[in-house]
Specification:
6-stranded parallel beta sheet; 3-stranded parallel beta sheet; 42% helix; 275 residues; 9 strands; alpha/beta
């Protein structure tokens, strides 16, 4: 069997970022993303800092709000409401995960749909599920864009997603269903996971469990998308069975941030269009 096609997100993200920068420069104001971080988790702080650097790199403004780890849900919601009302802020990102005392769903739903450029609110999920206007969850949107770029046929495809998180597995299932794929969502309670994954024409691993997907769990010639963190949910041997596979790092990750920036500019352009 020939070597699999590598679904690189780095080059595609660079193209998307260049287009985003051009659109940002054409606006009569600087499109601005507000990031909100609750607590002092090092990983979260690193991701937020990276997003701020990307904003500066591609002509977007950024504003950062850092809150104490003991912040209450009511205090967080008040901050999000203020940002939602600020005309100089066009997109809002609330960094996940949140401390245990925070009602995550209430917090995400405090972000207005027009500024929910990370696609985490209930309204954004409903819009994706129903095919209505709205910003899509960034990682799923990046995966769909990556598959389109490599001309992976979605209509009629048998897709299995391993992972059912509200920011990845569930919205991705909605997006792919809207593209006429037949989608199965698997999770920690799924019996005999390999039975499902081994029949998939397109397999998306999004469980956050390194090496979960082994070669025996992959259909020969399948397209495999690894949405896990480094070192990835898909073993090296499993990726070699595939017709095409995304690497970790360099696959889905760059697309996530590219979609975030693009949707921030989309939100800013909508402001111009409404004037």
């Amino acid at each position: 069997m020939s070597s699999p096609i590598i679904l690189f997100g780095i080059e595609l993200a660079a193209e998307l970022n260049a287009a985003t920068a051009a659109r940002a420069a054409a606006l009569p104001f600087t499109p601005t993303l507000a990031t909100v971080l609750v607590g002092d988790d090092p990983g979260s702080a690193k991701y937020v800092a990276m997003k701020q650097r990307r904003c500066a790199q591609y002509g977007l403004g950024s504003r950062h709000v850092r809150l104490a780890s003991d912040t209450s849900t009511a205090e967080l919601i008040a901050v999000l409401i203020d940002l939602g009302a600020d005309p100089d802020v066009h997109g809002i990102l609330l960094q996940h995960p949140l401390p245990p005392q925070i009602d995550e769903r209430a917090a995400y739903d405090a972000i207005p749909l027009r500024k929910d450029v990370d696609g985490t609110s209930s309204a954004a999920f409903a819009a994706a599920a129903l095919g209505q206007p709205g910003h899509r969850s960034c990682t799923p949107a990046g995966i769909v864009r990556l598959l389109d770029h490599y001309r992976v046929e979605l209509a009629g495809a048998d897709v299995v997603i391993v992972g059912r998180s509200a920011i990845l597995g569930k919205p991705l299932a909605a997006m792919l269903t809207a593209r006429d794929a037949t989608v199965t969502v698997c999770h920690s309670r799924t019996r005999d996971l390999a039975t499902h994954t081994s029949r998939a024409e397109i397999l998306v691993a999004a469980a956050g469990r390194p090496g979960l997907i082994t070669a025996a769990m992959v259909r020969s010639g399948a397209v495999v998308v690894d949405a896990g963190f480094t070192p990835g949910d898909v073993s090296e041997e499993a990726a070699e069975v595939a017709r095409a596979a995304s690497p970790v790092p360099g696959g889905v990750g760059p697309m996530t941030i590219a979609m975030l920036l693009a949707q921030t500019v989309d939100a800013a352009q909508a402001v111009v269009g409404s004037r």
